[in-house]
């Protein structure tokens, strides 16, 4: 018997699990480790100021709160003895190289001006400053710098959250949750009467029943599978992203900033020559975590356009992730109506490494103290939708 079961061990579920355990909730995290887990493939850019979202200020406000929370969380993990989180503020350079990028560049700088109050540090830079910092970069026509942008390795951060969670009693297990058990109301698997249902636990593919009063579904793109059990439609679907890891031997890439072009592609540098170039954005991909010829070509072509100096880099790895894309592009967090003890934490789409640790905290606070979830990311915004 647990107080809570968290389904999913990506960055979101790991954060929920950590925060619940830290609050003294006896928690079991069950993770199936699917091929296509988004957290494993994620590039790791943490920079809401350069998001291409337009006039979406609810998302922006949530995202800036989320990035503000990162340093505090990193300190807490360190206090729990977990120092390797991979998080680092390395800055970002956004560079418009070809003519077709000039219009999106102007739109981006206009968005930054409109949000200037929360983005005080972003400023235009001379193109030569950009190429001085990153010799592999093509000569840009225009560039700006985001000094407080950060990078995070999703896999390392999620693992750090689980490790710190274990110091507070979090239990973690590999497994496949096949259903949420409820009693009473419309949430029952056998189709009960309309009314309040209550979570009693989960079932696993091994035939185990795990008793718990609360279940948090943080299953990324796979979360909608629980909609039938819980009597709701979960408006999330997979959006595939393919990404390539390169090795530029002997380059001091640890000191490079993140590089962004204006065709939605980017390069995230890591120490020891590793550079992560991404990514495709494939709506309608379904659950198909394959690396494709077209995907690789797109990513490599864009990486070399942005940074021709990488032409001799070694291709060391490709990864594929299924981003959990919510229908309105914003996470879906909080209590599921009419099913006591059931919660959702998913729908983070292309920005889950930025938002996920904070979302996990909010959902854990919501579970333990009924702290309200901001309206813009709350499950409640779908309450009037047909089930
Ligand atoms: C190529 C790519 C690049 C990206 N780059 C960035 C970036 O630069 N910045 C950024 O902020 N975000 C980025 N993202 C987005 C980010 O990676 C995702 O939004 C985030 O990782 C989603 O985390 P999650 O925990 O919700 O889902 P996931 O990481 O997919 O984890 C879900 C987990 O739940 C498990 N699960 C599902 N169903 C069950 C079940 N029934 N039983 C047990 N376990 C189950 C799965 O096996 C999986 O391990 C990128 C994503 C991709 C694919």
Structure explained in plain terms:
- The chain is globular.
- The longest helix is centred in the first third of the chain and has 23 residues, at 57-79.
- It has helices spanning 11-22, 38-41, 57-79, 102-114, 127-133, 154-167, 227-230, 293-306, 352-369, and strands spanning 2-7, 27-31, 45-46, 88-89, 92-96, 123-125, 142-146, 150-151, 171-174, 177-183, 197-204, 209-217, 236-247, 258-260, 266-269, 274-278, 314-326, 332-335, 339-340, 342-346.
- Strands 1, 2, 9, 10, 11, 12, 18, 19 and 20 form a nine-stranded mixed β-sheet that branches.
- Strand 1 (2-7), helix 1 and strand 2 (27-31) form a beta-alpha-beta unit.
- The chain has two domains: 2-43 and 156-236 and 328-382, 3-Layer(bba) Sandwich (FAD/NAD(P)-binding domain); 87-148 and 237-325, D-Amino Acid Oxidase, subunit A, domain 2 (D-Amino Acid Oxidase, Chain A, domain 2, 2-Layer Sandwich).
- The chain is of the alpha/beta class and 387 residues long.
- It is 28% helix and 27% strand.
- The chain contains nine helices and 20 strands.
- Bound molecules: flavin-adenine dinucleotide.
- Flavin-adenine dinucleotide binds next to helix 1, strand 2, helix 2, strand 13 and strand 17.
List the main descriptive attributes of the protein structure presented here:
2 domains; eight-stranded mixed sheet; FAD/NAD(P)-binding domain; 9 helices; 28% helix; alpha/beta; binds flavin-adenine dinucleotide; nine-stranded mixed sheet; 387 residues; D-Amino Acid Oxidase, Chain A, domain 2
